[in-house]
Structure formats: structure tokens, C-alpha cells
Amino acid sequence: MAKVGFIGLGTMGGGMAYNALQGGNDMVVHDIRREVATRHLEAGAVWADTPREVAEASDIVFTSLPGPVEVDAVALGEDGLMEGLSRDKVYFDLSTNSPTAIRSIHAALGEKGIHVLDAPVSGGPRGAASRNLAIWVGGDRAVFDRCKSVLDSIGDKAYYVGPIGCGAVAKLVHNCAGYIFQTGIAEVFTMGVKAGVDPLALWQAVRRGAQGRRGAFEGLPEHLLPGHFDPPDFALRLARKDVDLAVAVGREYDVPMRLANLVLMEMTEALNRGWGHLDSRVPMTLQEERAGVQVRVPRDALDRALEAEG
Per the residue annotation, which of 3, 89, 171, 194 is the catalytic one? Predict the structure, then answer.
């Protein structure tokens, strides 16, 4: 049983804190609104008036806050965690935070021998309430392992990503990719409906296709991560033709296709490099060139990771 402190009992934090409490942990809680802690207090939690008091009473402290400004104030401000935490205590920030900000907090608290880990979550309010929640952790691996049972009381998919800040980066990659995908879906669905397809029929059709049957990140181990584009699953020249046709339909029906036109430009550049016979994912390497980094994982490491996930 751990002495756990929890700060931030809002839409996400309220559910996570309650699950940690139900997991058998002693708990001290704080929020700017005491009324949101009612169910936690009724279930046995103890109220603290400040983050400092939470830190003094806890071995492990969690924060779930709106963003970097609030996290910085709670961690480093007056009556904050830095004033209450002592050597070898642990602080997990569950917020969606800036990796630069959490690394700064890590450095400041580290001078006092306090362990800081970033641990943003994914699963939404339902996941926070049901414990069906991914937790992506950056920081000291040994501290993660030591606190794993408490993390497991909050979410069922606690995963160590790497050094401090890596959890925050993973969360931002995940969320930004989702919103890019969301914008693209809006673009192509408005094209499809304006071109005459019933929205329900369109949705039911596309979810039966290759993209609809698999997750957005499932294709990465096949091509980009191992850098394997030959032989192709589907050749770039054919994929470019498909996007060109979709953009033409958008023009015909006066539907703006901003993202699709960007994709067409990428494909055209790759085609002009003589890559038309390679897999349709090969234009992703153009972004690698611009970013000055390769996204590569050895094939054997990918195979082990896939096998471990079943």
C-alpha cells in the first residue's frame, strides 16, 4: 500500500484518483474546487489545502492539470510540491505537458533528490473512469518499475517510453496525428457526400476497406520503421493516381481539398525521384530528409515487439 497524493480532480483526474484509491492506496487529494473531491473523501481520502501539504503527506504524488502553466505553478510555485517533497519521493505528472517544461521541473526537483517522471494518459474520460487507460511514462526506469503497481491501479496500459520528456513527446505525437487524420477525414467525407454518396453508406463502405480495418499506426512496422519499400504492397504510381482522381472529384464539386493536394504534391515529388515502382509509403521518407532524422527500427527488434504484443 502506497501513500499517494493526487492534485487535480477534474474530468480526467477525478476518475484516475478514484481508481487509485480503490486500488487500496492511502490517498491525500487537492483541487482548486473542494467540492469535486466529495466522492474521494467519502471513500476514505484525506483533503489537503495546498500542493505542499499533499507532498508532505505522500510518497508518490500525481498531478492531472490543464497544461504547462498550471503544472509549473503546482510543482515550483509558492506552497508547491518543491516545498513539500523530500529526497527519494516521486512525482508523476499525468497532464499533457510540454517536454521542455517537464524536463525543467525534473532538473529543479532533481537537485533535492526528488524523482520526476512524465506520465501523460490516453483514453479520455471514460478510460479514466474505467481504468482502460494508456499511461506513457518518461523518466528513470527503476522508479517506473518500483511504482508500477500504483500506475496499474490508475490505468491498465502503463508503458515505459524512455528518459524524462519521452512520455510527453509520445502523447503529442499520438494526439497531433489523430487531429491531422480527423481533418483529412472531414475533407474526403465532404467530397464523397457532395459527389452523391449517402453519408451512412459511405461510412459503412470505407470501414470495410483496408484503412478502415486497421489502426492508423499499424502499417509502420511493415514499411517506414524497417525502411522497407521494395517490393511494394501497392506501388506509388498507382497510389498517386488514386489521390489525383480524388482531388479531381473535389474540383468538380467545388470541395476544398487542402490536405489531399499536399499529399499529391508529396507523391509527385517522390514520383519524380524515380520511386514510382516502390511502395506507396515511400514519400514518407521526404519528411525524414526535411527533418534531418531517420525513423528506423531493426527488423528483429520490430519482430520481438510485435510478438510481445501478441
Answer: 171
Residue 6 predicted with pLDDT over 80: yes
Q: What is d(CA 73, CA 66) in angstroms, rounded to the nearest whole number? A: 12
CATH superfamily of 3-170: NAD(P)-binding Rossmann-like Domain (3.40.50.720)
Burial pattern 5-33, b for ≥16 Cβ within 10 A else e, equals bbbbbbebbbbbbbbbbebebbbbbbbee
- Is residue 296 scored above 90 in pLDDT? yes
| Residues 17-29, mean pLDDT to the nearest whole number | 96
Residue 157 among the catalytic residues? no
Question: CA–CA separation, 24 vs 26, rounded Å?
Answer: 7
Please tell me the distance from the alpha carbon of residue 214 to that of residue 178, in angstroms, as a whole number: 14
Q: Where are the domains of the chain?
A: 3-170, 219-308
Cell of 153: 491501479
Looking at domain 219-308, its CATH class is: mainly alpha
pLDDT tens digits, 146-197: 999 999 999 999 999 999 999 999 999 999 999 999 999 999 999 999 999 9
pTM passes above 0.85? yes
Q: Residue 247 belongs to what H/E stretch?
A: helix 236-252
Residue 259 grid cell: 490536405
